[in-house]
Amino acid sequence: MPTTITNLLNEFKLELSGQVKWGEKINSNKCGFYFVSISQEPDKLVTWPTPSFDPMEIQRWIELINDKGKNIIIDNKNASINDIEDRLFKLWFKDETILYIGKAGPNKRRTIKKRVSEYYRTKLGCDGNHAGGHWINTLSRLNDLTIFYSEYNETGTETIESLESKLIDHFANNISAQTKNQLFDSENCFPFANKEVHYRDQKKKNRKNHGIKNQTSDCGKDWNKNNG
After folding, report:
1. CA 92 from centre of chain
2. Is 126 buried (19+), middle (13-18) or exposed (0-12) by CB count in 10 A?
3. What is the DSSP letter of 139?
4. Residue 206, class by beta-carbon neighbours within 10 Å (0-12 exposed, 13-18 middle, 19+ buried)?
5. Rounded Cα gap, residues 59 and 13, in angstroms
6. Cα–chain center distance at 34
7. What is the pLDDT of residues 143-195, one digit of tens each?
8. How far apart are CA 150 and CA 33, in angstroms?
9. 3 state DSSP class of 69
C-alpha cells in the first residue's frame, strides 16, 4: 500500500513539525527528518504517474561531469539526455507521493534548516554538501513539490541514523506489487531520490542498482548553484 507522509510519521510516532514549498526557507534549528513530497497535504496520496524531466538541467549535469574529465555512463556507454531520462523513468514510483527521505543530524550543527538549505543549493552532479537525493533536480516541476519535516530528539534506544533506515525500509516494504515489478531495481525500493540506505548498527549500506556511473564529481567551492 503506497505511503503518505501521515502514514510514515504515525508508524514511528513522529510529529509533523511543519512544511514549506520547495525552495522556501525552513526555520527549524533542530535535528530530525525531512521528506520531499508531491502532495501538499500530509494525508493525501497525490502522484505523478509519468514524471516530467528537465532536459536543460540534465544537460548541465552532463557538462559538469564532462568538465571534470569524466562522462556519465549508463550500460557501459556515454549517457545522453534521453538515456538518463529513460533510466530515471525506470526508477520512478508511479503510485507514490514521497520522493526523498532525508535526515538532519546527529551533529547538532546539521539542523533541518541547514540541510534543506544545502539541498536547495547543491548543483546536480556536485559531490559533498547535499549530493544525496540529487535526482530531484532532474524534475521540471520542482516548484510543485513540498517539504515536510519532523523535529526529533534522540533517545537512548533510537538514534536519528537508525530511525532513518527504518523510515526508508518502511516505504520500501509497502510499495505496490505492480510498481515493484516495473522498477529497474525491484530489490532496493527506496524512494526515487534515495540511492542508498545506511544500516550503521550493522556497518553496511544497501545501494540502489541504478546502473548510472560517474554521477558526481568534486566541485570544490563551486558547488552552490546560487553563485554565478
Report:
1. 12
2. buried
3. B
4. middle
5. 42
6. 10
7. 999 999 999 988 767 899 999 999 999 999 999 999 999 999 999 999 999 99
8. 5
9. coil
Helix (H, G, I), strand (E, B) or coil at 115: helix
Fill in the amino acid letter for 73: I
Task: Check if the beta carbon of residue 62 is closer than 8 Å to that of residue 72.
Answer: yes
Q: What is the pTM of this model?
A: 0.96
Main-chain phi, psi angles of 74, to 5 degrees: -130, 125
Residue at grid coordinates 549500506: 205
- Answer for the pair 23, 116: CB distance below 8 angstroms, yes or no: no
Taking alpha carbons only, the member of 128, 138, 150, 109 closest to residue 26 is 150
Nearest alpha-carbon partner for 42 in 6, 1, 15 = 6
Task: Give the pLDDT band of residue 228 (cuts 50, 70, 90).
Answer: low
pLDDT at 8 over 90: yes
Give the pairing type, strands 126-127 and 146-151.
unpaired
> Quick one: CA torsion of 225, 112, 33, 47, rounded to 10 degrees?
-40
78-84: list long-range contacts, CB under 8 Å, 24+ apart.
79/212, 81/55, 84/58, 84/138, 84/212
Tell me the β-bridge partners of 18: 149
